[in-house]
Amino acid sequence: MTTTPRANPTADTLATIDQWMQRLADETDQAAHSADLTRYLQTVSRFYSYSAHNCMLIAVQRPTARRVAGYRAWQALGRQVTKGAKGIAILCPAPIRAKTDAGDDAVIALRFRTGYVFDVADTDGADLPALTVHAVAGERYETLLHRLIEIAECRGLRVSFKERLLWDANGVSYGDGRIELKATNPAGNLCKTLIHEWAHERVHRAEDRHTFTTQQAECQAESIAYCVCQTLAIPTPNTPTYLALYKVSRATLAANLDAIRAGVAALMQEIAPALDLDSVRAA
Fold it and tell me: 24 burial class (0-12, 13-18, 19+ CB within 10 angstroms)?
């Protein structure tokens, strides 16, 4: 995999990035307090977080699963599992309890039993709250997307498209030079997603990913993509909500500012020499 040389941004570049980050902080604060996001998070909080092993079991049995929950959990959300729907088997902890010598209850062993969950596609009822995803489409972005892919691949990355990614993600970075994008998304959204995953590849390589929290990694990658998109005149209407979903605050952005600055400078060092920026912005 080709690595990115360390960039040395100028004072003017740093000042511009700081202005963009100030604006992003304002937009993210606004998104975090929106009624739509509040309703969405209240619903999401009722879904159980599954272990890596159970996630694998779900993916093997139902690769198209988007959101899963137990029978009663769906009822509590105002939806009913359809008659004849086949459950997805997972492992549920079943602790064995007993009294200690002091007379207290304690778990003396842990065994597992088979439980079943159902995908949202196997349920009917009230619509779940959803976040508005703004489409960024147009011939200009289709042309730019093809060019960005060419540049990425010249820099040692391998970009591919899939109709569906695990958990309905828009893009995936593996940290080893591979990037996958959701083929059905509009070209402008794909430009931003490609740059986001490109940032992951350069800043969060596979061997180092365990040193970053999910919030930290997503804050850095999305903020880098936001700033690079400003340079390329690509609208980023979904970024504030994306960051708010990861509970990224103004303080989080400030704490990651140095990494974001370096990441923006490094990606632009890869992208800018291969593009006529004035023509890209004017298109």
Answer: buried
